[in-house]
Design goal:
Strand 1 and strand 2 form a beta hairpin. The radius of gyration is 19 Å and the shape is globular. The chain is about 75% helix and about 5% strand. It has about 290 residues and is mainly alpha-helical. It starts with 13 loop residues before the first helix and ends with a helix. Helix 1 runs antiparallel to helix 6, helix 2 packs antiparallel against helix 3 and helix 5 packs across helix 6. The protein has two domains: about 90 residues; about 150 residues, no CATH class. The protein has a two-stranded antiparallel sheet. The N terminus is likely disordered.
Length: about 290
């Protein structure tokens, strides 16, 4: 099944393009944002369970999408490895948690059969990356954990929303038409710059914000926005590779959890890598990310 070809009729006006799917998208976004912010505020086990549920949904969508053999064994086996990894991570056993994901991916690759071994194993790594990343930033980081996730939300949501409106209202040359026909250069530039500014605003409002850090954090926000857009393109490439339009229909107006969180997964992984490289270990990832 491939995506429908674009109509040869006259292109709809920007207002028509905005109104066609804005209602379902807006309603779903409000619910998801409220749930994500509520879990962030409560923190601890509630936060971990919220993102574990998201990771399990992503994993189910991935394994459904690739249509490899032994679906039940792949899904339930991968879910066990994913839950086990998060349990270890909750106890601050970071290396062990990552090792469980690596071992699980190897076993799942065998279950996927010769033609789709890499895809079957990669699904666990992809799903685990988001829950491991946000747990390292929010739960295991001793300082700045909530601020790090708020910054990440602001950058990714700002990039996503403003890229949508910028692309729909401004139009112009396509960014990568073969992979994502609706994305434009205007939307990309508006989205990335808006996300970086919104992320910076969240940190400026924090008491004790250091002016010297604002320049590097703006650049970091730009890079995170670019990475988020790259994550969006990566997921689009996967869907085209397997001939589907949406990863699922779990979220009205958005498709599935992979469709909604593709950019966040990439940006969260990027943020953890930057924070870990700059810090002294997993307990200081948020500090390494935000203090320059």
């Amino acid at each position: 099944m491939s995506e429908p070809r674009e109509s040869l009729k006259a292109a709809p006006t920007p207002q028509a393009r905005l109104s066609s799917d804005l209602g379902p998208r807006a309603a779903s976004s409000v619910v998801m944002i409220a749930a994500a912010l509520g879990a962030l505020w409560l923190g601890g086990d509630v936060f971990i369970l919220f993102w574990l549920a998201c990771a399990l949904a992503i994993y189910w969508e991935w394994q459904t999408l690739i249509d490899a053999p032994r679906f039940k064994a792949r899904f339930f086996g991968g879910a066990v490895f994913l839950i086990g990894s998060v349990a270890l991570l909750r106890g601050a056993h970071v290396a062990s948690a990552i090792s469980v994901v690596a071992v699980g991916a190897s076993l799942l690759a065998w279950l996927g059969g010769p033609a789709k071994r890499v895809w079957a194993g990669a699904g666990l790594i992809y799903a685990a990356s988001v829950v491991i990343s946000v747990t390292l930033l929010r739960v295991l980081s001793r300082i700045d954990g909530m601020e790090a996730i708020l910054w990440l939300f602001a950058v990714v949501w700002g990039t996503d929303v403003m890229a949508y409106f910028g692309g729909r209202l401004i139009g112009g040359p396509k960014l990568w038409p073969r992979l994502s026909p609706s994305k434009t250069w205007a939307g990309f530039l508006v989205g990335v710059s808006s996300g970086a500014l919104l992320g910076l605003l969240c940190l400026v409002l924090k008491p004790g914000a250091e002016a010297a850090s604002l320049g590097p954090l703006f650049v970091l926000g730009l890079l995170a926005g670019v990475v988020a857009q790259a994550g969006d393109f990566f997921e689009s490439w996967i869907k085209r590779r397997f001939g589907v339009k949406d990863s699922s229909r779990l979220i009205p107006g958005h498709g599935g959890f992979m469709d909604r969180l593709d950019g966040f997964i990439a940006a969260a992984t990027f943020a953890v890598l930057v924070g870990w490289i700059k810090s002294a270990g997993p307990g200081f990832v948020a500090i390494g990310l935000l203090r320059w």
